Amino acid sequence: MKIFLTGASGLVGSAFAGVAARRGHKVVGVVGGFEGKIEGVAKKIALDLADEAATSGAVLEAFPDAIVNAAAVSTPEACEADPARSQVMNVALPAALGRLAHHLSARLVHLSSEQVFDGARRTPYSAGDPTSPINLYGRQKVESERAVHAAAGEFAVTLRAPLLMGNSAGGKRSLHERLLGDWAAGKTAKLYTDEFRQPCTAENLAEAMVELCERRDVTGVWHWAGAELISRHALGRRLRDHFKLTEAQAPMMAVTRSETPAAAQRRQACLALDVAPLAGKLKTRPQTIAEQLGELTVPAPVRAWYFSQT
Ligand SMILES: NC(=O)c1ccc[n+]([C@@H]2O[C@H](COP(=O)([O-])OP(=O)(O)OC[C@H]3O[C@@H](n4cnc5c(N)ncnc54)[C@H](OP(=O)(O)O)[C@@H]3O)[C@@H](O)[C@H]2O)c1
User: Fold this and answer.
1) Which of 4, 11, 93, 165 should be mutated for ligand 1, with most atoms under 8 A from CB?
2) Does residue 164's CB lie within 6 angstroms of at least one atom of ligand 1?
3) Which of 213, 221, 55 is nearest to 146 (CA)?
4) Which of 124, 156, 249, 266 is positioned for an S-S bond with 152, CB 3.0–4.6 A?
């Protein structure tokens, strides 16, 4: 099928393009400022997705069977820094894509986030639980879900994704890339021992998303994540061990939420997602941390530093 992919240069979008192409789909990929090649993108379009008329024109010209929305202002910090831009990218854009999907009878796969929840409880959130965002990013994601499903109805499916691992196009986006970047710069990584996440890789998420393009019978809002809940500090240790770095080469400081009360108010303590309902429908499996680590490569920006250490 022909898939119109926004955010093709992002962590998830670039993984999606590779997986979709390997499964025989043709990907028309939209980038913003990214200039490099993206594996799996048959046709690359540079476009400002904040421009609704230009976005509509590109979608209508492509006339896709499916639209996948992996474009966003994708961190809470970036949303707070520019609320107007993030409102356009995180809410107005998905709403417009929802209207286009409905108009074209195209499948729409939209990405939301674990951060629609406040993280105040330890038990996994189900997709039907009431949302409770504690930051602008989470509020915009909730709004985007409502807008997408109001506009596209049964054509749309939303996946709420967790903290992501994986290899990004620029090598600076995902968790291990940022950690290795800090260590290469001589910084000590401060990681919470009492903040828990259920990470998965962008590649694994992309496998689920490609299946959802093909599975029009799955509609509504669903959760996807890895198979294990882990603290940020424990994950940092697993990453340091995986890349065979010593404590001196890759320094970490364990911190707790009570030591940083102001920051803790803006951060969720535990974001566990119930993935069983969607896992029961898909061939893609939630991965263990060990399986995820096995996919990670040394990112290009820190390669010189890394190979001088090992
Ligand atoms: N990363 C995570 O840990 C995580 C966790 C849960 C959910 N999610 C969600 O998953 C989705 C994908 O996230 P990600 O981490 O892959 O994002 P990302 O790496 O930050 O990539 C964002 C993408 O959006 C594009 N973009 C932003 N503004 C644009 C504009 N005005 N015009 C055209 N393109 C624009 C960027 O293009 P250029 O770079 O070419 O400008 C890039 O391709 C998002 O909805 C995010 O909220 C992410």
Assistant:
1) 11
2) yes
3) 221
4) 156
